[in-house]
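The authors assume throughout that readers already know how a fold can be written as C-alpha cells. A single example would do more here than another paragraph of explanation. An entry of this sort, consisting of the sequence and the corresponding C-alpha cells, reads as follows:
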Amino acid sequence: MSVITHEINLRLQRPVSFVYHYLLDSSNSASWDPRVTQAAKTSPGPIQVGTHFDLKMRWSWLELSVSAHITALEAPNYIERKGLADHYSWIERYRLEGDESHCTLHYQLDFFAHENLSRLRLLLAPMVRAQAEAAMRSLERSLHKLPSDWKPSSWTRWGDQLIVPGVLRFTRFGFAAAKSRWTGLTEDLSGRRIVITGASSGIGAAAAQQLAKLGADLVLVGRNIKKTKQVAETLERESGRRPEVEIADLSSMQEVQALAQRLLAKGEPIHALIHNAGALFAQRQLSAEGVEMSFATLLLSPFVLGEALLPLLKAGAPSRVINVSSGGMYTQALRLADLEFEREAFQGAKAYARAKRGLVDLTEVWAERWQGSGVSVHAMHPGWADTQAVAQSLPQFYEFTKDWLRTPEQAADGLVWLAAAPELEGSSGLFWLDRTPHQTAIWPGTRTSPEDQKALYQALEAYRARLLPN
C-alpha cells in the first residue's frame, strides 16, 4: 500500500460555523465537488461520529462506489472522514479557523492505493492531487457564492435540434457532464417560505430534502396523508425543523381552491411555489368534477393554484413559480380544441406530454402577465429519473433505460437551483434543463403561437369559472 498526501489552504468569506456545518454533511459534495455524481447520507438522525454516506465518484470515464463515514469531530473547527472503495481508501481532514465574518480552511488528504494500484503511484499521484485541487477550488467558488454561468452556448442550441445529443442530456450522463460547469449552491434560505406540490415521494421529496438543508421553511403538499407526513418527519429529524403539511387531491379544483384558501388565511408570504405534482394515466379517466385527469392534474390545477396564490407571491417578492414539465412535451403540440382528449383515441403518454406542453405555454403567459410584479416564472425538465412513478406508469421505458436514469436527487437539482439561485433575478419565462435554458419547440408543428397561448389562458380561466363559480 502506498500513500499520497496533499494539503490545501483556502481563505473563505463565510462564517466558520456555516462552513463547518456545510462540510459536515457529505451529501452536499454532490453539489460542489466535480468528482462526485451521487452522495447520500445513509445513517438516520443528526450527523455525528460514525454517520455513514454512500458516494459515487468519477475517475476519468469510470464511476466508482465509495463508502464514507465520519471518524472525528470537534465543532466548529475539525472534521475527519474516511472513505473506502474497491482499490483505494482515503482520509480527509478539515481544520477550520475564523469567526462569523470569515474562515480559513486547512484541508489534508491522505490517499491510500491498495494492492496493484499502488504500483502506479508515480502516475496516480499527480491525478489525485489535481482532482483534490479541482475539488477545493470548486468548493471555494461555491462558498464565495460565485454565480453559475447559465447562458446557453451554441452547442446547447445545436444539440437541441438533434435527437441523440438532446436525449442523452436527459440521462445521468447528461447530468454528470453538465455538473462540471456549475457552482455549488450554498444559499441560506432561512425565512423563505416554499410550497412544493407532489412532495410525498420521488423528485418532490428529494427537492424538499435539499431545500430543507438550505434552511427553507417548507409547505409540503401531497395527496397521501401517510407518505407526506413521513417525508415531513424525516426532514424534521434531519434538519430540526418540521415542515408544514397540506393534504389535497390536485385533480379536484375544489380541493385546490380549499388549499389556496388555507394558505391565504395564514397570510404568510410565499417566496417560491413549485408545481411538481404529476401522474400518468394509462386509461382515460375523469375527476370527480368530470374533467379528464391528465389535464386536471397537470395543467388546470397549477393554473388555479398559481392564480389564487398570486397575492402571497407578490407579498414575498422577489418570488418564483416553477413548473415541472417533461421532455415528452417536445413531441406534442397544444390542442386547444381537444384539451381533454375527447376527439381521438386516448394515449396516456401523449395526454401527459400535451398537458406538460400546456404548462410550458402557461409559464410564458404568466411571465408576460406578471412582469413587473416581482414574481418570476420558470418551467423545467428534470431529466429522466429513476422513480417509482416512472417504473409503474412506463414499465417498458423503465426497463430499457433504467441503467441510464438519474437519481431523484439529480433530477431535483435544477428544481432547487431555480428556487434558490440569486443569479436568476430578472429572468422569467424560460424552460430549463440542468441549470441551462433550452428551446421549447424542436419538432415541426409543436411550437405554440402567442395567440394560442393567450387562448389557452382564456380556456383555463373558463374552466376555473365553471368549476369554482364562487
User: Anything to note?
Assistant: The two ends are 75 Å apart (CA to CA). The longest helix spans residues 121-143. The mean pLDDT is 92.
